[in-house]
């Protein structure tokens, strides 16, 4: 597992041309940056479905993982308009977003549907970016209880079937999505550390917990000890923000002060 998993869902913000411009700019940054080159950071991008093949071609050479924003709970069948995890895996995706708050709110995704989709991702060897988070601002303790219930609900079918795999839990308090600023570092740390403890040593799942909700440059240094990465939205629309976050990773890990070799790769030994 990389020390940090950091990525962005482009939601429906960009058309195809801008998606590719953004991806190429981010791929250039990741191809050059010591923190992505040495595997300290696994960067991922989640575009709209039609852009996935072109994004894959632009992102894969830079080591960027690509995923879908949703999947169906079945692997095939009469589901007009839907996309299966089997097909996402077939075209090269390694991750898929499941249960984002916007899908739960606007597309009727219940906890049961999210659970079936989580299992569909895992059985197709896709790492679910499983989005959980409390609806209203409150205490960290109440958020932890809400999120643990949501998490275990989402994992029930996979646990029942004994399906193993990599899991990326995206802790996204709903009240912090689309907001001017993220949840406070203390809140993020309390909830994410509880989720990490809960999943640590899981028999089936190799799990990490990342934070999303108005995340951007400046946040990771305040939460790094208690998270496995960040899920970026609007504050990564400027590709330069990705470079700033990777620079912050270098500072966090101490690599920022290390000398670089001729190829520009930081020498840490
Ligand atoms: O998918 C990303 C999250 O929903 C966060 O989006 P945001 O940073 O624009 O609030």
Automatic annotation (TrEMBL):
Enzyme class: isomerase
Localization in the cell: Cytoplasm
Oligomer status and interactors: Homodimer.
Superkingdom to which the source organism belongs: Bacteria
Main localization (coarse): cytoplasm
Similarity remark: Belongs to the triosephosphate isomerase family.
Gene3D superfamilies per UniProt: Aldolase class I
GO MF annotation terms: triose-phosphate isomerase activity
Annotated protein name in UniProt: Triosephosphate isomerase
């Amino acid at each position: 597992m990389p020390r940090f998993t950091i990525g962005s869902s482009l939601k429906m913000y960009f058309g195809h041309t801008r998606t590719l411009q953004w991806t190429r700019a981010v791929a250039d940054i990741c191809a050059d940056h010591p923190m992505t080159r040495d595997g300290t950071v696994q960067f991922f991008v989640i575009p709209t479905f039609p852009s996935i093949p072109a994004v894959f071609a632009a992102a894969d050479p830079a080591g960027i993982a690509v995923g879908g924003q949703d999947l169906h709970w079945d692997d095939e069948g009469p589901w007009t308009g839907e996309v299966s995890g089997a097909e996402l895996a077939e075209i090269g995706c390694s991750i898929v977003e499941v249960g984002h708050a916007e899908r739960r709110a606007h597309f009727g995704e219940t906890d049961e549907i999210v659970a079936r989709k989580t299992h569909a991702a895992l059985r197709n060897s896709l790492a679910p970016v499983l989005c959980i988070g409390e609806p209203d601002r409150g205490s960290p303790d109440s958020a932890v209880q809400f999120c643990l219930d949501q998490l275990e609900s989402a994992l029930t079918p996979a646990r029942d079937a004994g399906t193993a795999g990599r899991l990326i839990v995206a802790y996204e308090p709903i009240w912090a999505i689309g907001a001017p600023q993220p949840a406070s570092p203390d809140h993020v740390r309390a909830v994410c550390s509880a989720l990490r403890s809960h999943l640590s040593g899981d028999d089936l799942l190799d799990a990490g917990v990342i934070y999303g909700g108005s995340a951007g440059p400046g946040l990771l240094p305040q939460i790094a000890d208690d998270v496995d990465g960040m899920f970026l939205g609007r504050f990564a629309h400027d590709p330069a923000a990705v470079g700033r976050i990777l620079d912050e990773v270098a500072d966090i890990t101490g690599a920022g002060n290390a000398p670089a070799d001729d190829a520009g790769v930081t020498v840490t030994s």
